[in-house]
């Protein structure tokens, strides 16, 4: 996904460009000299790092900052000259296209560097590299990097889209799977204990022998899945280190997560599609915290009923555990998601759909992505109320939520202001003809049309069977009002409110008056003045 650049970033970028140009006139910078060197220089620096690491191991562990710094140096920095060469000279290259101003790029960078460090330690042949697409737009275009951040895996020079998660562990899992290591084999209790230290979530398969149709389905599933680390084991004692409740005979598949609902065992037939479905419904925690990095995975979940809790971090601490208890009752049926209400990038787009973008209190909402309907808990966000709300959500007995502004005072108004809550009364249930203007604050032409409507309302003010009204579609919704273009003018005949007549907003004032007159004016009550 692409993030917009704030104005100050444009200013900062312009200043940076001027400084770079002034430096370029005099002599090349250290960075430019480094960019032109062959990748052998990188290897020499990494060799120095390895020597330093060996020396450090004799005195003590690296600090977290030192580990991250070393990991960042492992990632190759591509430029216009080196990008093509690095991709052509290596069998596997995982490229991160980024922009310096992109917040998501900045969030992904340390995860990418940590993944590079882990892959190097595992002896992987995958080269991790990054390209500043702002600085080297031609190179980025050649690699088909169009948004930020973008991850692409090049296999013998041919690219394929990245489809994994965005934590360091998930990047490692995906990269290894795509380069020939879909399953890790554990042979002993010691290896199982070491495996547990490194992996937070994994699928464990237990087999007497690593052969046969059942085992082949397991490997096919491991290869097809993009996010979960698979581990295979035949030693039953080692298997019980990973999954304590494994039986001593037959084959088994289970998923392990680092949360209260730690273990889930599969009980169906060993067929790839069914195994993948099991993983998709069990790989998320009981309550998933939405972040920029996991948002794509959450949105693409096969669980189409999703319940969202928007709350301040300190408020959610008290709610988290009881919410897990509620979520456990709807496991694999409703996905429970927490969003920090203070995180505007994540919370505000959702809350705006409910007209609650300025809310600071806890909000519980739900989406049915199968029918694109939304719902809102309109009582206190207690565990009992959330459970009742979830139960009705699952049963399909909740009424969809349509946002509405507060009911306005329309006394003596020549044009009635309609909100979501009053649309039925003023428009659909009124015995009168209604001429409705649908507008939004951001609409360029709406202000001009509003003035036209005001003139029409004044012109027809003596008609008792005609009401002029307007509604702000950005803040109000109604199931019978489906408008996508603004401004939109709709004439609702008193005799047929179900079939409003669309009046062109491009019409002249006189033509609009003729349309209205055609339906409501009579020779007895027609105004005498002319437009």
TrEMBL record:
It catalyses: Catalyzes the rearrangement of -S-S- bonds in proteins. The keyword Repeat applies. One of its GO terms (molecular function) is protein disulfide isomerase activity. SUPFAM superfamilies: Thioredoxin-like. Residues 42-180, 393-531 form the Thioredoxin domain. Keywords: Disulfide bond, Endoplasmic reticulum, Glycoprotein, Isomerase, Redox-active center, Repeat, Signal. It is found in: Endoplasmic reticulum lumen. CDD domains: PDI_a_family, PDI_a_PDI_a'_C, PDI_b'_family, PDI_b_family. Its main location: endoplasmic reticulum. GO terms for cellular component: endoplasmic reticulum lumen. The keyword Endoplasmic reticulum applies. Residues 1-26 form the signal peptide. Its EC number is 5.3.4.1. Belongs to the protein disulfide isomerase family. This is protein disulfide-isomerase. It comes from Eucalyptus grandis (Flooded gum). The lineage of its organism: Eukaryota, Viridiplantae, Streptophyta, Embryophyta, Tracheophyta.
């Amino acid at each position: 996904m692409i993030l917009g650049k704030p104005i100050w970033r444009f200013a900062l970028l312009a200043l940076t460009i001027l400084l770079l140009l002034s430096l370029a006139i005099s002599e090349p910078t250290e960075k430019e000299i480094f960019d032109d060197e062959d990748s052998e220089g990188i290897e020499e620096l990494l060799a120095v790092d390895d020597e330093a690491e060996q020396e450090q191991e004799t005195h003590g562990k690296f600090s977290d900052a030192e580990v991250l710094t070393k990991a960042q140096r492992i990632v190759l920095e591509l430029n216009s000259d080196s990008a093509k060469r690095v991709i052509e000279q290596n069998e596997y290259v995982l490229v991160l296209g980024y922009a310096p101003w992109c917040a998501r790029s900045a969030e992904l960078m340390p995860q990418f560097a940590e993944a590079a460090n882990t892959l190097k330690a595992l002896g992987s042949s995958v080269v991790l590299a990054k390209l500043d697409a702002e600085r080297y737009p031609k190179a980025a275009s050649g690699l088909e990097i169009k948004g930020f951040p973008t991850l692409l895996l090049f296999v013998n020079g041919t690219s394929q889209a990245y489809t994994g998660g965005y934590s360091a562990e998930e990047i490692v899992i995906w990269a290894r799977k795509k380069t020939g290591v879909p399953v890790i084999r554990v042979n002993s209790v010691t290896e199982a204990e070491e495996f547990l230290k490194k992996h937070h979530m994994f699928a464990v398969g237990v087999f007497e022998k690593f052969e046969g149709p059942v085992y082949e389905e397991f490997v096919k599933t491991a290869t097809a899945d993009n996010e979960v680390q698979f581990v295979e084991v035949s030693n039953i004692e080692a298997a019980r280190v990973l999954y304590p409740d494994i039986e001593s005979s037959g084959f088994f598949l289970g998923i392990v997560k680092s949360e209260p609902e730690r273990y889930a065992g599969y009980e169906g037939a060993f067929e790839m599609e069914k195994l993948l479905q099991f993983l998709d419904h069990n790989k998320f925690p009981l309550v998933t915290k939405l972040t920029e990095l996991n948002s794509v995975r959450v949105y693409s979940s096969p669980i189409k009923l999703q319940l969202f809790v928007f709350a301040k971090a300190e408020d959610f601490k008290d709610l988290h555990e009881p919410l897990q208890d509620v979520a456990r009752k709807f496991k694999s049926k409703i996905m429970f998601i927490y969003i920090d209400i203070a995180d505007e990038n994540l919370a505000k787009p959702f809350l705006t759909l409910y007209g609650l973008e300025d809310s600071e209190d806890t909000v519980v909402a739900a989406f049915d992505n199968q029918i694109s309907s939304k719902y809102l808990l309109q009582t206190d966000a207690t565990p009992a109320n959330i459970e009742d709300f979830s139960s009705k959500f699952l049963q399909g007995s909740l009424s969809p939520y349509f946002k509405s502004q507060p009911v306005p005072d329309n006394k003596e108004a020549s044009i009635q202001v309609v909100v979501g809550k009053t649309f039925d009364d003023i428009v659909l249930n009124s015995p009168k003809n209604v001429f409705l203007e649908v507008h939004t604050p951001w609409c360029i032409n709406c202000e001009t049309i509003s003035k036209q409507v005001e003139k029409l309302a004044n012109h027809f003010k003596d008609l008792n069977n005609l009401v002029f009204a307007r509604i702000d579609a950005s803040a109000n919704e109604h199931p019978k009002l489906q408008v996508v273009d603004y401004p939109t003018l709709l004439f609702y005949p008193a005799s047929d409110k179900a079939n409003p007549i669309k009046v062109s907003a491009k019409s002249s004032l006189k033509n609009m008056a003729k349309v209205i007159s055609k339906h409501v004016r009579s020779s007895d009550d027609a105004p005498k003045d002319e437009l």
